[in-house]
Amino acid sequence: MSVTAPRGFRAAGVAAGLKASGAADIALVVNDGPDAGVAGVFTANRVKAAPVLWTQQVVRGGVVRAVVLNSGGANACTGPAGFSDTHATAEHTAAALTASSPRRLLGAGEVAVCSTGLIGERLPMPKLLPGVRTAIRGLARDGGAAAAEAIMTTDTRPKTTVANGSGWTVGGMAKGAGMLAPAMATMLCVLTTDAVAGPDTLDAALRAATRVTFDRIDSDGCMSTNDTVLLLASGASGIGPTEAELTAVVTAACHDLAQQLIADAEGATKQIAIDVVGAASEDDAVEVGRSVARNNLVKTALFGNDPNWGRILAAVGTTSAAFEPDGLDVAVNGIWVCRAGAAAEDRSKVDLAGRDVTIRIDLHAGDAAATIWTNDLSHAYVHENSAYST
Amino acid sequence: MSVTAPRGFRAAGVAAGLKASGAADIALVVNDGPDAGVAGVFTANRVKAAPVLWTQQVVRGGVVRAVVLNSGGANACTGPAGFSDTHATAEHTAAALTASSPRRLLGAGEVAVCSTGLIGERLPMPKLLPGVRTAIRGLARDGGAAAAEAIMTTDTRPKTTVANGSGWTVGGMAKGAGMLAPAMATMLCVLTTDAVAGPDTLDAALRAATRVTFDRIDSDGCMSTNDTVLLLASGASGIGPTEAELTAVVTAACHDLAQQLIADAEGATKQIAIDVVGAASEDDAVEVGRSVARNNLVKTALFGNDPNWGRILAAVGTTSAAFEPDGLDVAVNGIWVCRAGAAAEDRSKVDLAGRDVTIRIDLHAGDAAATIWTNDLSHAYVHENSAYST
């Protein structure tokens, strides 16, 4: 049910011809209220796409009644002309929505815009704007699945989630399959809820949730120009959860979507959890986990079903985390192949036949822990990313 | 001529059975003096192999008369037992060299040890020690080529260099094909010179040279546990160059070897120079160049002959260098595909058919510049590194 699982939301997904394949490429999510609360988290990349720059402003305004998303083009590195295209998309969406339901006046400043696809090319506006009108005509209370389909790029399947509170619900959709790295992945994500929540509560819940979910997946260490996660609140349930309750359910939704993103990462044959324990701080644990997750030699070894723990230690050694090199323990799928920085159990005992891999690293430096999720580096990743724009 | 080009050095390379293939796997370089000066630069990885820990101590002592190097095993992550193996290798080499030429007493503390190969396994000492004795019997004034062969791992060819001063010479050999990243690459390098130079001059020259050569190649972003660069000075020419003269010639030798390393990087089909200009500082230029060099999406695009400049901008955007996103220019092989952060010349004009690629990034933030050298990410890299230890 995706973003339309909570009350107060309609959505649509349509094909406007942005994708050469003819697949759906425009999604629209509309919040029918009564509230129009919003929170957003955006890419930390300093090279930000036009829709990110626009939507950051819109979210700062505190009211979002519609999100229009397109695949088939990122509208990043497109200069002032690209920003005008985003602005025109918001204006057009606001005007067409107002025309379709005149009882509610809607301004461009209440329309968030997200784009994904190739960087550096202008969007074909003569196709995009009619596509928005088609999407408006298709808006439906059960449109969440269609919207999730329309934001896919190299994704092999749509990603949707529903998480329930007591009498209220969080729904969500996401896309992303490569260029996945914090903060954040090359991903777009729209979350919706019918809970009643003020802007500070929404913002706190979203930041707490993304910090331990989307910010801890790292497919290929590459940070995108377009990453956007939005949380829209309609208030339609009439129920106002506590911040802790809202955070828990939003986190559950984000965790589910993050795992779907990593599971569908480009060309991946392994889904890898890196559990770092015994860290002096959570930051240390995250730094170590991320260093291992980004190490091409670790990732290619796992693609080859090779429990090459020496490469894991070499990756840990590049961090500034607190540890002693001769105090490191490493287990791969439960076999402690390294104890005290040297070989321990026989690496041949490690079973890497399955898709799921767990690497456990004990730094023996404290009580903090964190998990980073990643995937292997395969021939298919190289193939897919050497042939994307041509 | 490699390390035996300068006067005062002998070398050998022999097969001791460390490599299953039966190829040469032990190299020995002996400095016959009259001087025995040394400088060294080592991996910044905190997980350091036993031979690195040993050789750092030896170099601190200021006198090195012999370097024994083995391929077929890195002796990294092998604990106290691995350190004992390195110590025993140095003791054995010193004793056997003294026995072979009793007029010069040689202590273990004057013997540097370098190892390369798989991390996490003990070296087969019953093969290694007899190999050292065989190498001593084979020491020759023209043994540089054989020594360079014996340190190869996944290298497809030996790397040697000779650079001339006025009446004195620098020779060198290096190995390394993957796990190439600063500081430093997975590399071993022995440089020799017959110049007369004190320890401070040797150290200054070597640090200045590696800073702009080995520290600016980045094959796969992975930092090794074993990287070692040694500069040995025999003084046999009787000529004492200035520090600037020595630095220039050592830099030329290091540059030549660094380019050979990148040219032979595992599975590479492209040799890529990333010229960053208009930077506010050299550090900024290096940070930007390295970020692009480590971006898997840029590297796979180039493997696919795709001038995907948007991925280059996305990589630049992850740095903390001074620049304005809408002030970035990027050229690929001379075609300015991006001006002011947006598309400029048609990307179809870029000719990527050849092996050499130059990416030029103008940050428009100052007058500093730096070049980082890297290679593409290919199917062959994935293949080679998914099947290395098994």
UniProtKB/TrEMBL annotation, chains A, B:
Enzyme Commission designation: 2.3.1.35, 2.3.1.1
Signal peptide: none
Pathway the protein contributes to: Amino-acid biosynthesis; L-arginine biosynthesis; N(2)-acetyl-L-ornithine from L-glutamate: step 1/4; Amino-acid biosynthesis; L-arginine biosynthesis; L-ornithine and N-acetyl-L-glutamate from L-glutamate and N(2)-acetyl-L-ornithine (cyclic): step 1/1
Annotated site residues (Involved in the stabilization of negative charge on the oxyanion by the formation of the oxyanion hole) in this chain: T116, G117
Active site: T186 (nucleophile)
Matches recorded under Gene3D superfamilies: ArgJ beta chain, C-terminal domain, L-amino peptidase D-ALA esterase/amidase
Binding site for substrate: T153, K175, T186, E266, N385, T390
Group of enzyme by EC: transferase
Swiss-Prot/TrEMBL catalytic activity: L-glutamate + acetyl-CoA = N-acetyl-L-glutamate + CoA + H(+); N(2)-acetyl-L-ornithine + L-glutamate = N-acetyl-L-glutamate + L-ornithine
Localization: Cytoplasm
Annotated site residue numbers, Cleavage: A185, T186
Pfam families, alphabetized: ArgJ
Family, per entry: Belongs to the ArgJ family.
Name of the protein in its database record: Arginine biosynthesis bifunctional protein ArgJ
Originating species: Micromonospora coerulea
Lineage summary: Bacteria, Bacillati, Actinomycetota, Actinomycetes, Micromonosporales
